């Protein structure tokens, strides 16, 4: 029954137009109308996105729910949308998390709530646009436009050093993306098209592949973020309001990883192969070094931010380990599928877990207005329900089996073993490090004696907070215990991707 | 010696503007403060009439007239219509600003229309003579407009500076023209290009001539290193005049560049290509970096304009019709954004307060969320962030640069545009993240509010649907 509707367009434009309406309605001080409208819009968007899952054909790697309208004919740019098994779950993650963010900001945001809600709704639409775009220019427009609401969100509702953080965030990501723009223009001149699928098909000489790969790398590495261009993330996370941190961690970081899958791997597979040592190296540095950095943080948000970078290292490791696996297994790419699927599962899982962790910190911050670990202690005595959730999410963050955090990491480590024992060994240290920094934080914040008067005065979570934490807890356990539906959705797409990157794209004459 | 009656038809808009301007000049003598609005309305009517004339004359062919010194081609048609539209907007913006400052006089409109006439002649010029004629007509009108605020020291200083430097640039241009005339023996552009192609052996004198011509053009466009006048004049002139100087003459400057280089000297393409690369890189670099240090928004926008001039040159230097179309697209888009930017300064200012300092924009989101949002559109568009029109303009010129295989140049341009993004973001930071210095909401006149909103929303709407304007530019350049 949904077959005739342009579902993707609806999912993109409902929140954007809704966000504009919210902005216009919200002149009132309390902004109640704006909040209710924002909640309705985000729920509507979520409902609209469900048919993307129920109507999804898992048997094919082809793009589904495609839409095609010529947009700028002078440059052969088209409004071309579609999803496959990788982007569809990410869109659902986006629509789902936005609902939670709206609920989470309900009572907390007192300063211009209408603009706050509007910014998140507009951002939601733009992020979905990034995942759904099949035209490189459309992708780029959504990719860049997304920075505008985030810039505003951090800058208005952020912490003390919000201006520094938001400028850094914007300029870093802007710098990253302009190089991608040049690469896209180069590709346009060699295909006469901006269709991403045409880019996948064209053969490109080796040197050009390297340059294009590096241009993409700058854009996506900043977004993921990979070491050493990760420094904007802790600043942005710490200074952003809770909702901003959630969206940043849960969705925006995934955009970079998604870019690797949609652009780098299939468009320039040979360069990806040539430079996979670089990618694996950077991923391992992120996993281990950033893990140690997380260990010494005093600020809870900063700790989770660093833990995010470390977890994203797994994602990129899973993607770029493919050729090592093939080399270790006489050219067979079959083992590579698990690495990439593990990376994608990790993306989704991290979306839930990190979002949940930031919401937990937000719950505490709303009460005590401090993110310092030392200001807390013995929270469990005053907030037992909250402590239960926090411990669950912390376990998931540490990668406890049975939670979402475990599945992806385990798949990536397993596939790394197929490639090289030492890579797997180094990657596996995260299980120790992750447990160390997360659980140590939990120990200091949640357990122990009640530390001071402020903690003693804490109130346990109210119904609203219980609601969003419970929903996330269900998701974290759901993905952890039964990841099969997720894997099934992406399987055909990843199989196709692996088959695609196994074939060299160098022009025949150059060999 | 026989005298052929020239074909007056292609020059109908010029003659109409000239006639109307003279009429306004006379009528204004009989008007007083209260009825002066008649001059204003007549000036607007002149622009509308000229627009209709140019539109009805618009065709896909080039038509020469007046012994081949005048040409009406699609490029001229489109650029002229853009000039009318721009000046129409300028008048709308300036109306109440001028009234509040006692500058609402017939001279403003008459001078502006003479400036428009100069631009029209320049855009349609097809010989060195008409180019110079148009350029001087335009420039003299602009000098006088800057000086209109007689008792303002900064304005007088700016006018003096503008006049002296402008005269020098004109002299350079004339010198270059005389060299080329000396070598080729012609002033007419088609013959010139033929003569240049046929010149054998030593081309040194031709290249010298070319360099001097480019100095003149670079001055008018405000490209580095001939940009020194831009910040001072933009700063010193009354904002309404700045609005005029910073927008429409850029379109004429672009036309002048096209006429001289592409119509007149295609034979020296390798030479002017290199010079334009240099001018473009310097303009983009200096414009974007120096703008960061500004505390006055008019100066900041002036440096931003310098960097935009550099981007415009990037389109032209590729030497392909697509590149020229990209340059033209950039010029038109810059005009729209410049109107918005300086229009905002006008909107923020009121009698006795110029809103020139960046500080004055602090906390605008608290005072007026709507206009803060409009300014946000304008700033992000200038920074080249999608989905605003400024992004497509940058994309078009970058595409031209990439197609010419100048990847390094594209990389330099985008790096500087990231640096430049900083100062646009700072304006947004001031508006959104800082506390307002003064309380009370902003209450601009209804006409200003409507014009600025239309301008800014136009920037967004054109950003969503840039195809038609792009196609028009491509068609005008025969690509």
Question: Explain this structure to me?
Answer:
The complex is a heterodimer of chains A (511) and B (479). Chain A is globular and about 75 Å long. With 511 residues, chain A is mainly α. The model of chain A has no long low-confidence stretch (mean pLDDT 85). Chain A has 23 helices and two strands. With 479 residues, chain B is mainly alpha-helical. Chain B has one domain. Chain B contains 19 helices and two strands. Chain B has a two-stranded antiparallel ribbon with strand order 1-2. In chain B, a hairpin with a 4-residue loop joins β1 and β2. Chain B is globular. The two termini of chain B are 41 Å apart. The chains are: A mainly alpha (511), B mainly alpha (479). Chains A and B meet through α5, α6 and α7 of A and α15, α16, α17 and α19 of B.
Give the topology.
The complex is a heterodimer of chains A (511) and B (479).
Chain A: H1 7-25, H2 32-54, E1 64-72, E2 77-83, H3 87-104, H4 113-132, H5 136-145, H6 147-157, H7 162-191, H8 196-201, H9 206-223, H10 232-239, H11 242-267, H12 269-274, H13 276-295, H14 300-320, H15 322-328, H16 334-368, H17 379-382, H18 384-398, H19 404-419, H20 421-446, H21 453-456, H22 463-481, H23 484-501
Antiparallel strand pairs in A: 1-2
Helix pairs in contact in A: 1-2, 1-4, 2-3, 2-4, 3-4, 3-11, 3-16, 4-5, 4-6, 4-11, 5-7, 6-7, 7-9, 7-10, 9-11, 10-14, 11-14, 11-16, 13-14, 13-20, 14-16, 14-19, 14-20, 15-16, 15-19, 16-18, 16-19, 16-22, 16-23, 18-20, 18-22, 19-20, 19-22
Chain B: H1 12-29, H2 37-57, E1 63-65, E2 70-72, H3 74-100, H4 106-123, H5 128-146, H6 153-184, H7 189-198, H8 204-221, H9 229-236, H10 239-264, H11 269-292, H12 297-317, H13 321-348, H14 364-367, H15 369-383, H16 389-403, H17 407-433, H18 446-464, H19 467-476
